[in-house]
Amino acid sequence: MVRDNFAIFILSHGRPDEVFTVKTLQKVGYTGKYYFIIDNEDDTVDGYRKLFGEDRVIVFDKAAVAKKFDVYDNFDGRNVVVYARNVCFDIARELKLDYFAEFEDDYLDFRYRVPEGQVLRSINIEDFDAVCEAMLDFLDSTGVRTIAFAQNGEMAGGVNSNVWKTQVKRKAMNTFYFKVGKPEDDFYFLGRFNDDVNAYTVLGQRGEIFLQTPIVNLGQVITQSRKGGNTEAYKAYGTYVKSFYSILACPHSVKIAMVGESHPRLHHTINWKTCVPKIISDRFRN
């Protein structure tokens, strides 16, 4: 069993019939609380209520949330996930939760990664409650802002991949585990796109720590392959525009570069030497 003061928030929009995350959580043995975070501009809200129950669907005022943070542009439309991200701390308090996780709606699997020689094995998870408990224990014992899972695509190269060799990378994307503190300690995800990258770079330069573990991996539907969610916005503006939001957020440490070898593409890259402070413990200074 996972602790009662924790819940998973599934952020979704416009696709109640294609919420893969719920079935995936059931498959991996999650028994805790979960809620759908839906905006009041979504005309499919009743579909979520019908399929998942009135008590599991929480509807927020999107226009009201939009006044509280900067999307870094003057474009029309609010069909992106950042608005839902920025109501979760308030909703957690309303539900009297001490912890919550933000998940998206398109997760197909969660798996452990275990090295065997030069091979990085993928093992099915059967007790996701235990995974959640480990993440929350980590938040309690370290004081980091959040911890996230690595995505399957980052594990190319297996035990020789940069993600596995590093083990704990200073980033967090897609899945977020949070501890609920005082309202004045909350933060806002920023930017229409790359809101997760913008968060861990902007807050990272202020000393906040966002971390990712490769021990648990996330598999999800191919980006832009379904209607709803961020798909329409991504198709309208493209990856090239998307990447520039992180330059606006952290111009001294983020740039656009060609990434990938066989199929290179433009993408943001981060200079971690200038992005986050490197404070050496007193015990190492002499």
Walk me through this protein's architecture:
By secondary structure, the protein is of the alpha/beta class. The chain has one domain: Spore Coat Polysaccharide Biosynthesis Protein SpsA, Chain A (Alpha-Beta Complex), CATH 3.90.550.10. The chain contains 10 helices and 11 strands. It has a 5-stranded mixed beta sheet, with helices on both faces. A hairpin with a 5-residue loop joins strand 10 (254-259) and strand 11.
What is the topology?
Elements lengths: L5 E6 L8 H8 L5 E7 L5 H8 L4 E4 L1 H5 L15 H4 L2 H7 L4 E6 L2 E10 L2 E6 L3 H15 L3 E6 L10 H5 L9 E4 L15 H8 L7 E11 L10 H19 L4 E6 L5 E6 L1 H4 L11
Parallel strand pairs: 1-2, 1-4, 2-3, 7-9
Antiparallel strand pairs: 4-8, 5-6, 5-9, 10-11
Task: Give a nutshell description of this structure.
The relative contact order is 0.15. Helix content is 29%, strand content 25%.
